[in-house]
Amino acid sequence: MEREIDLNLLKMLVLLNKYRNMKLVGRKLGKTESAISKSLSRLREHTNDKLFVRGAAGLEPTEFTSSLIPKITQALDLIDDAFLSTQFDPKEYKKPITIALNGITFESNGTEIYQKVHSSFPNAEIRLQSWSNSTKELIIEGEIDIGIQLFDASLNQSISKYCIEMKLDLWCTNLMENLSGVK
């Protein structure tokens, strides 16, 4: 039978092994000593091991805990690395960004839009083009990353909508979620 385990309990276990003191670990985690004690009890039930015993110098890990700590530390590091590697940094983005603008927006705000996008994505090639009859399909297909249109009620709902400072409707592919961090 699979058993689920709270990753916070594992983090606490690693800290207990490092500091050997529930009060100190509680401070590190923003919890009370009592909360740490209860969490340790849950983990003890889960592992069917004492995990730590009181010693002269504070908490001492059991042999079982000592064997687990390197594996748990490695696993937590891998999880942290997985999330770090998925963080988006617009300054590192190097692919072209194609933006389709309706005529009025292109004429009145094209330069400003280009400059703002380029300042956020300095290593990307920014391409501005006029909105056309095929723009909606090109956004869906991923050929155009961002589309700015005053209003078009006929747009497919698979295109995500975001409002930008100029109070225009911004239509874009999933790329915009990565670019803006908005979901």
Characterization of the model:
The chain is α/β, with parallel strands linked by helices and 183 residues long. The chain is built from seven helices and seven strands. The protein has a five-stranded mixed β-sheet, sandwiched between helices. It has a two-stranded antiparallel sheet with strand order 1-2. Helix 1 crosses helix 2, helix 1 crosses helix 3 and helix 1 (7-19) crosses helix 4 (63-85). The longest helix is centred in the middle third of the chain and has 23 residues, at 63-85. The chain starts with 6 loop residues before the first helix and ends with a helix. Residues 156-178 have low confidence and may be disordered. InterPro entries: LysR-type_TF, LysR_HTH_N, WH-like_DNA-bd_sf, WH_DNA-bd_sf. It holds the Pfam family HTH_1. Residues 5-62 form the HTH lysR-type domain.
Structural class: alpha/beta
Number of strands: 7
Distance between the termini: 35 Å
* pLDDT < 50 stretches: 156-178
The CATH architecture of the largest domain is: 3-Layer(aba) Sandwich
User: What proportion of the residues form beta strands (DSSP E)?
Assistant: 15-25%
Gyration radius from CA atoms, angstroms: 26 Å
Number of domains: 2
CATH topology of the largest domain: D-Maltodextrin-Binding Protein, domain 2
DSSP helix fraction: 40-55%
Q: Give the helix tally.
A: 7
CATH class (first level) name of the largest domain = Alpha Beta
* Element-by-element helix/strand order: HHHEEHEHEHEEEH
Mean pLDDT: 81
The CATH superfamily of the largest domain turns out to be Periplasmic binding protein-like II
Strand order of the largest sheet: 4-3-5-7-6
The biggest beta sheet reads: 5 strands, mixed
- Envelope shape: rod-shaped
